[in-house]
Design goal:
GO molecular function: hydrolase activity
CATH superfamily: Alpha/Beta hydrolase fold, catalytic domain
CATH class: Alpha Beta
Number of helices: 13
Keywords: Hydrolase
Protein name: Alpha/beta hydrolase
Number of domains: 1
Radius of gyration: 20 Å
Domain AB hydrolase-1: 78-329
CATH topology: Rossmann fold
CATH architecture: 3-Layer(aba) Sandwich
Organism: Herbidospora galbida
Order of helices and strands: HHEEEHEHEHEHHHHHEHEHH
């Protein structure tokens, strides 16, 4: 790619971030302002305020991960919740609140996310995340457990299955994979025409590299343009934007906005190269639940169907009119599926 073309792409990325102030002002006056005037049933929901006992996990490459342990300490089963890309353990709000009543719950922030330590140029591969999860289990889970992963968190579980298959069926009694993929994310169209999608995918690696190099400038633009982020997330992250709570969108957008641009750029190549389809056979040893929204643009339903085909013993739940943040958008359906999975794991069913 020529220097002129690379500079042009960089200009688009940095310019778009810098232009966020003016565009966001217009959006706030019209679209965002009107949305926020609608009745909001979740306006008083204490998002981000759940807490357990603080724990720290030190990885084999000396990175400190933030975690919390909640629920009855003598519960016979622990549920480990693994969050997705650009989110934090708070994204499990509804699941955490329900599960801690009966089960021991471990939530943790993936490396460089949330309250976990952030170090420049640290290993940000999916395989590394799988090793982190193994350390979390070793340090914080004394007995049997069920693993639940959303998006990149689901990929983390797949990486663990690839590297530590002996844990499944013995230590790990069940798995839930929510809005995730076993590979080929680089082929996503995101609803765009094929030619446009191809051009976007071709330009994205260079744009991501610029984003990482100019992270401070991009982050300033992201802070200024948060109303535009609100509108984009409301459209892409949730399936039925007419019913989604503005408070909930704000909550999800705040987690994404708090994720530094260099972290977003650093993990992106790992997501695009992720391929663990051949590792999924080990999940046939334990009860497995696959959950996805039928309007998910980021990890479309066909990716969950591919996982289900590789794990024929699994149950597949397709959530109508829901998108990538299905655990926040339709918590009742997701929670019912998780309780069913955990009860099967307790009985030793498949």
């Amino acid at each position: 790619m020529t220097v002129r073309r690379t500079a042009g792409i960089a200009g688009i990325v940095v310019g778009a971030a810098s232009a966020g102030v003016a565009v966001a002002a217009l959006a706030k006056r019209y679209a965002v302002g009107r949305i926020r005037l609608r009745p909001d049933l979740e306006a008083s929901e204490p998002f981000g305020e759940l807490h357990g006992t603080t724990a720290r996990v030190v990885t084999s490459d000396n990175l400190t991960l933030a975690a919390e342990v909640d629920g009855p300490p003598d519960a016979p089963l622990t549920v480990v919740l693994c969050h997705g890309y650009c989110l934090t353990s708070d994204s499990w709000h509804y699941q955490w609140r329900l599960l801690r009543e009966k089960y021991r719950v471990v939530v943790w922030d993936q490396r460089c996310h949330g309250l976990s330590e952030r170090v420049l140029d640290v290993d940000q591969s999916i395989d590394r995340l799988g090793e982190d999860l193994a350390q979390v289990i070793d340090d914080l889970v004394p007995g049997p457990c069920v693993l639940v992963g959303h998006s990149m968190g689901g990929m983390t579980i797949m990486a663990l299955a690839d590297r530590r298959p002996e844990l499944f069926g013995d230590k790990i009694k069940g798995v839930a994979l929510i809005s995730t993929s076993a590979g080929k994310l680089a082929e996503l169209s995101l609803g765009m025409p094929a030619l446009v999608a191809k051009l976007v995918h071709k330009a994205t690696p260079t744009a991501v590299a610029v984003m990482k190099k100019k992270a401070a400038l991009v982050d300033r633009g992201r802070q200024a343009g948060n109303d535009i982020s609100f509108l984009l997330l409301r459209h892409l992250g949730f399936g039925d934007s007419s019913r989604v709570s503005p408070t909930l969108v704000d909550f999800a957008e705040s987690m994404i906005r708090a994720t530094p641009a260099d972290v977003i750029a650093g993990f992106y190549p790992a997501l695009m190269s992720h391929d663990k389809l051949k590792a999924l056979d080990v999940l046939n040893k334990v009860p497995t639940s696959i959950i996805v929204g039928d309007r998910d643009w980021l990890t479309p339903p066909e990716h969950s169907r591919a996982i289900a085909a590789a794990v024929p013993t699994a149950t597949l739940t397709m959530v109508t009119d829901s998108s990538h943040l299905v655990q926040l958008e339709c918590p009742g359906i997701v929670n019912d599926a998780l309780i069913d999975l955990i009860e099967r794991a307790e009985r030793g069913d498949r």
